[in-house]
Every structure is written in C-alpha cells, then in structure tokens.
Amino acid sequence: MNMSPRNNDDPSEKPQKNVGEDDIQEMEAVNNSLDELSSALDFFEQRTDDIIEQLKELLHSNREIRQELAMENAATGVDNLNLEKKDT
Where in the sequence does UniProt note compositional bias of the Basic and acidic residues kind (predicted)? Predict the structure, then answer.
C-alpha cells in the first residue's frame, strides 16, 4: 500500500504563464481602486470615531447639567419647605 500524500504536485514542474501587459494594467487599476477604497474607509472610520467621542462628551455634559439642576431643585425644595414651616 502506498502511504505517500495524494497531492504531490511540484510547483516547479508547472508551466509558467506569461502575464500580459493588459492584465498587469488591470491589476494595477484594481490595486489603485482598492487603495482609494481603503483610504475612504479609513476616513469614515476616523470620522465615526470623532462623532462617537463628541457624543460621549455631550452625554457627559448633559449628565452633569442634570445633576446640577437636581441639586438646585432639591436645595430650592428644602428652602421652600423651611419657609412653609416658619409661616405656620
């Protein structure tokens, strides 16, 4: 029984294919298009990251404002409650 692997192709034995000038130009065009697409995707990724960071800052700011307003309302409520007690 033969125990050697089934795929014994030697790449050096395969005939070399000549790549035509048209094929080379087409590959270069595809590479250039892929580079442009990659650059565009990088731009949008950075823009998205910037927007996310701005949204986080806005949420943080809004949270602080709400906390300040809640503290002011609580203080005003205590002051109003104290005034009502004095009036009685």
Answer: 7-20
